[in-house]
Amino acid sequence: MHPDVIVIGSGAGGAPLTKRLADLGLHVLLLERGRAIPKEPENWNPRQVLLQRRYLTQEAWKDAVGKPVNRYARYNIGGATKYFGSVMIRFREQDFLATEHLDGTSPAWPFSYSSLEPYYGQAEQLFGVHGATQDDPTEPYRSTAFPFPAVKSEPFVAEVEAKLRRQGLHPNPLPVAVDLHEGGKCIRCATCDGFPCLVGAKNDAETRCVAPALETGRVTLWANAVVLRLVREVAGSRIASVEVEHQGELKSIVAKTIVLSAGALNSALLLMRSADSTYPAGIANSSGMVGRHYMGHNFTAIMAVSQRRNPTHFQKTMSINDFYLGDTSYPYPMGNVQMLGKLQADMLKVRVGFLPAVVGRFLTARSVDLLVTTEDLPKPNNRVVIDGGAARLAVVRSNADPHKRLAGIMTKMMKQIGFPLVLTNTMPLAFSSAQCGTVRMGDEPSLAPLDGHCRAYDHPNLFVVDASCFPSSGSVNPSLTIAAQALRVADHIAKTEFGIQRSSAS
Question: Is 60 left (phi over 0), alpha (psi -120 to 50) or beta?
Answer without folding.
Answer: beta
